[in-house]
Design a protein that fits this description.
Two copies of one chain form a homodimer. By secondary structure, chain A is α+β, with helices and mostly antiparallel strands. In chain A, 33% of the residues lie in helices and 26% in strands. An eight-stranded antiparallel β-sheet of chain A has the order 16-15-12-6-5-20-21-22, covered by helices on one side. The N and C termini of chain A lie far apart (41 Å).
Chain lengths: 408, 408
Amino acid sequence: MTTDELLQGYARLAVEIGVNLQPGQDLQINCFPEHLELARAAADAAYRVGARWVDLNVTDPHVRRSLIEHGPEEELESTPSWLLARLEDVAERQGAVLLLVGDAEPDLFSSLDQGRVAKARMKDLRTRQLELVATGKLSWAIIGSPNPGWAEAVLGEPDVDRLWEAVGSTVRLDEADPVAAWREHIKTLKARAASLNARGFDAVRFTGPGTDLTVGLSPRSRWMAAETKTAWGQTHVPNLPTEEVFTTPDLRRTEGIVRSTMPLVLQGTVVRDLELRFANGEIADVKASSGEEVVRKQIETDEGSKHLGEVALVDGDSRVGRTGITFLNTLFDENATSHIAFGQALQEAVEGGADMTAQEMAEAGVNDSSVHVDFMIGGPSVDVDGLAADGNAVPIIRENAWVLTLDA
Amino acid sequence: MTTDELLQGYARLAVEIGVNLQPGQDLQINCFPEHLELARAAADAAYRVGARWVDLNVTDPHVRRSLIEHGPEEELESTPSWLLARLEDVAERQGAVLLLVGDAEPDLFSSLDQGRVAKARMKDLRTRQLELVATGKLSWAIIGSPNPGWAEAVLGEPDVDRLWEAVGSTVRLDEADPVAAWREHIKTLKARAASLNARGFDAVRFTGPGTDLTVGLSPRSRWMAAETKTAWGQTHVPNLPTEEVFTTPDLRRTEGIVRSTMPLVLQGTVVRDLELRFANGEIADVKASSGEEVVRKQIETDEGSKHLGEVALVDGDSRVGRTGITFLNTLFDENATSHIAFGQALQEAVEGGADMTAQEMAEAGVNDSSVHVDFMIGGPSVDVDGLAADGNAVPIIRENAWVLTLDA
């Protein structure tokens, strides 16, 4: 397939499988300048299936860089009121939001004062976005948008066509009928979630080099995969690609140590060899060979950022993992292998989550934060077990293969 | 000078001479994707002089094209509420707005249904912008941003460096001290305006091939140039480049026929050989060898769009005219030669204009419209006279040279 065919195909998947746009619905697209071509294709696909209005917002990281470098300290954290108004509008209209990712300049902020970098992230906007997502007020999806800078970081050369080929294979554009392939894939992932839910594990445990981590679950934790549903019942697939089965842990019950198995890009900085130690669910110690300060600042954002909000399982069948590529992008890399995230919980992965009061959430250990940072902890040498309430361990992933079945 | 030096120099002029940004002031930048480099440089220059917040909004014409091609008829005219909120915010804060122009794809909409093209222009946003500008509620400026598509249209090849050189010379970046050169230039233009105001002409008359047009003025018409002032007293230079001396005519008193001397780009379509006939101040007849339909739609927008809102005089000394280049862009071409505009009047060019009631404006013949379309009518073979109330003609421009002085 040509790059243009891949681009058109991905745009259609984003609209038809991703946000599952309905006639008359609004679509907001948020992207960086290097994503414009794919954003335009998605906008066109959306109008073709009957969108009422497609609104594109291009965020320019260089303007943000100037703010961080020369702007007044007291404005670093500001969110313009109209960006909040824009977000409220699409939520009120029960619309859809499509986010394009794929960092064109991953080191753009790395030479700046990291305290100022961490502040300049429009916290109010992010908090509200996470709230709306957590409570099913938006049909949303994230897709990756290949560009020269991202290709250079990933492949060592700005070969956008090769990156497109890899991205295309992660989202099954190499199948004869990608939409049909997606329906099948969604079924497989949902069966895995069903098998985990049937077991009712009390915790999951990761063991491997530098890792022995037990993530305690709540009795209300519910394993989910691929598809989610808005408050008004619209199914959508938030991540394209997606290979994970995930749930919300009890924020108080993570213990042990974990070593990240892949780099991640955070606030424009590449974080490598991240190692976290947990005690009573809280991150007690942080180490990294690069980007440590950025992680610390993120973790110190609020009370919730010190605790986990997600745990997710991925095996070696992953279309992302099978490319053998480290994409340096969470959307892709988190689907290459198992991962955890500190910060905001996924309320939809908690029984009755969308309707819980703050007190009920606190009782169930459902985390609340203005950040949500995924990092990868799985791989060929990391085993995953489910722990029953009596401590009995049941293999879920062995030698990177999913071994748990519904009947076993 | 290198293109990068020209870009940095233009960005500084835009901030320091154009909007004349003050410490603590907001700056909103509106541009198209191809203008991002200059927009970033302007944002950086703004933060360096103490901007509180710089907000960049990138409008993508391809998304608009998809709306026009596939969007629902009843939404074509929509303005998203948050774009209006954004504009109100900068006005309430007594901020500045910088607009970047330079069409990268001048024929992007030319194959579309022109009725739909004319509708999809966010009329509410434009109307409010023109109101805020007309009443001095914003410090604003427009600059041109060279890009490959614009260079191709202008020069026949996408030679951005050559276009940058031409644009740089129009805004005096080839001077040793461009800021000082601008101060001198502003003085010259203001002296011309003073000489016109001292005469108190009742009308100006253009005569040349295909043109015999008399534009009647109001006793309250005031000639202006280069610099204007916000309602709170901040001077700014709205157009970079600027070479014109302009005023607001009496909308009821234009008579005769006029032939455009340069093409213009309107709604993404190139309009050539435009010819308009006026009777009792109203456009009675429209002809053009291309783009006629787009002009008709614009003129039919509202009652005000059928009448003039501006008349402006430019002689052959113009830095723009001296490049010998037709820039296919109003900001530049209107500064190459004399021009008129149908639609919204410039209230600041009317004695007491900012504080007039709707009835007073109607009495003085000050036009009100949601459009403002300039087109060029001057040149080497077009003479301009000032007509006194008794009909006596005084030469203003002869053989493309300004001949009127304060003492003559």
